[in-house]
Structure formats: C-alpha cells, structure tokens
Amino acid sequence: MPKSRLKIKTITCHDVYNFGASLQAYALMTYLKKLGHDVEIINYKPDYLTFNLWAIGDKWSKNPLLRFAYYSYVVPKRLLMQSRRKKFDVFTRNKLQLTAQKYYSFDELKKNPPQANVFFAGSDQIWNPLLPNGKDPSFFLEFAEKGTVKASYAASFAVSDIPADLVTNTTRMLSQFNHISIRETSGMDILNKYGLEGELVVDPVFLLQKSEWKEQVPYHIEEPYIFVYDQENNRMMRDAAVFLAKKYGWKIYAIEALYPMSYADKQIKDAGPEDFLALIQSCKVCLTNSFHCISFSLIFEKSFFLFKRTHLQVNSRMVDLLTYLGIQAHIVEEIDDNLVVKEIEYTTVNERLYTRRIISYEFIEKVLNSTQSHV
C-alpha cells in the first residue's frame, strides 16, 4: 500500500432508499478508510435519483385513466414508506461520509470537481444503459481532473450488451479509466467485446468481515422465524414460507414492499439498512430473490433459499455466485413436501469466498499503488 495518506472519492447511487445500494456504499467507503485513507462519497443527487412522491413512468403518464390508476395505487404506498425513508436518511447521515458540497448535475461536477488522488466509480448498476445513470458521464468519472487515478470497483452494466447507439460514447468514457473492475461475468464479456481490460471482483459488502457487519446489527430477535425479502411478489416464495412455517412451527417475518404480504406473521414496513441486517442475522432461514439478501446470508452464515426472478440478467449473478460456492442446491425450482431447511457447510464456502476476496483486495491495492505514477 502507498505510505502516504490518499484522498479518495467514490461515486455511486448511495441515497436511493435501497438496502443493497446503501450497504455497498458503506462497505467500500469503510474498507478504504480502514486502509488509512481519507474517503468521502460524492454527494451526487441528480433529479432522476431524487425521491419524488409524484414521479411516474412514461407508460403510465400518457393515458389519463392509467395515470389516475397509478397514482391511486402507488402514492398511498409511497406515503406509508415515509418512516422507512427516515431510517435510510438517518443511516446516510450517521454512517456515510459524504462530501460537504452537494452536486445536482454533471455540469456542477465538471465546473467544480471534488479534489482527490483517486476516484472510484461503483459499485452497483451505475453503468446500466437502460437507466439514466448508465448514460450519465458523472458515473464514468468524466469530471475528474487530469492526473488523478480513475477506477471502478465492482461496477455493473446489468445487461448483456451495450445498446448500439451508446457503444461509441460508453467505450470512449471507459477507455479513460486507469483501472476497471466489474461485478459480473457478463460485464467482463462486454469489456472483452470492445477491447477493454478489467477484473472480476466481489461486491463491496464482501470486503468487510462478518465481525465488522455484526457490529452494525443494532439488536437480536430471539423468536425463531423465517425471514422473507421478496422483490417481485413471488408466489413460490410465499408458498415455501407458509409450508416451512407450518413444518417447523416458526413465524414468518417479511419486509413489505409495494404490495401486501398478508401471509406473514409480522410485516415490517419501516425497515432501514440496519434492520435489514438484523432480520437476516437473527433468522432461522432466509427466503429471497435479492442479491444483497443472499450476500448477507452468506456473510452471517445463515441457511437460505434463492428464488429466481423474472429478469434473467438479475438471476445470473446470483446463480453464478452460488454455483461458484458449490451451493446451487439452495436455488428453489419447485415446491414439494420434501422441502427442508438445509445446513450449509460454511467452511468450504468461506474458503472459496476468501479466494475471491483476496483478488478484490489486490485489485484495490494495485489502484492505490498506481497513484505513485500520477503524482
């Protein structure tokens, strides 16, 4: 590691009221600080990432009847989520070290760029070309001044290829990076296709150890329960939860999303990032279709079942991870009377995770050491 204390800035979607987004931002920041550097997350809040009670998608806005139906259903749900957003705001305020200056556009970043020796873009779907952030030059570090080190950490395209109309500009911006690391094999395929070099690394949440995450868990739940975190209203997940609850005599705890989960004994409407960690850490088994819920189940060495989502690209990174770890048997394809909560042999799993972690630590070390050639 470089002997001097570096100024490091990261940029990611850190404030979007999403458990994984908040926790991965915290993890990368914390790991870099642990190495002895000054680290801040750029407080970037463009309109498209700012909460708006009345926001509506294009497919709903054009038809008056659809627009009325959308607002009638979604706005009351968003109002109920206010208490959850407050917990996220507290987490952001207390746990994330943000730049004092807020930036609301790429132009503001370009006119008055934050000062740093090293910039990290990532993690998460910052380069998803189907979302506004995937077209935003801010997330490609286009604002960084000449002479600084530009790197990505575990960035994701979240698609199998870049749309044709975006290829030229996207590859041009990526070619300006000194170091690129990607979260998924599909992202490596994209880089290879366009003649760009990169490395495959773990999600930032794996940079921290189990003991470090346990320090962030504010309470323990004694009652035995099944934890359900469902992002798609998955009927198979619901049926599995009800079946296992009856089989083992456990309660069902669920974080409520934009739809009711009436089968749960306890529906948590106001969970913040630390509640999310506590609910995973205390449960008997976790049922989910979320990458970060699977990730923390692995970190806390919990039993879990993964249910596939309708979006195949999202499935690939979860299935790839479990296959690499040799625990793909925990992917549920169908429900029958033979479904049982299986113990996971975490000695082997942790050995394989350790190998991936080392590759990731070495990538970060290489980035930080490269500052010597940019002084």
Write the layout of secondary structure elements.
Blueprint: E1 7-11, H1 19-34, E2 38-44, H2 58-61, H3 64-80, H4 82-95, E3 98-103, H5 106-111, E4 118-121, E5 149-152, H6 167-174, E6 181-182, H7 185-193, E7 199-200, H8 210-214, E8 225-229, H9 235-248, E9 251-255, E10 266-268, H10 273-282, E11 285-288, H11 291-299, E12 303-307, H12 312-325, E13 331-332, H13 346-369
Parallel strand pairs: 1-2, 1-4, 2-3, 4-5, 6-7, 8-9, 8-11, 9-10, 11-12, 12-13
Task: Walk me through this protein's architecture.
This protein is an alpha/beta fold and 375 residues long. The protein has two domains: 7-208 and 354-374, Rossmann fold (3-Layer(aba) Sandwich), CATH 3.40.50; 210-344, Glycogen Phosphorylase B (Rossmann fold, 3-Layer(aba) Sandwich). The chain is 40% helix and 14% strand. The protein is built from 13 helices and 13 strands. The strands form three sheets. The protein has a six-stranded parallel beta sheet with strand order 10-9-8-11-12-13, with helices on both faces. The model has no long low-confidence stretch (mean pLDDT 91).
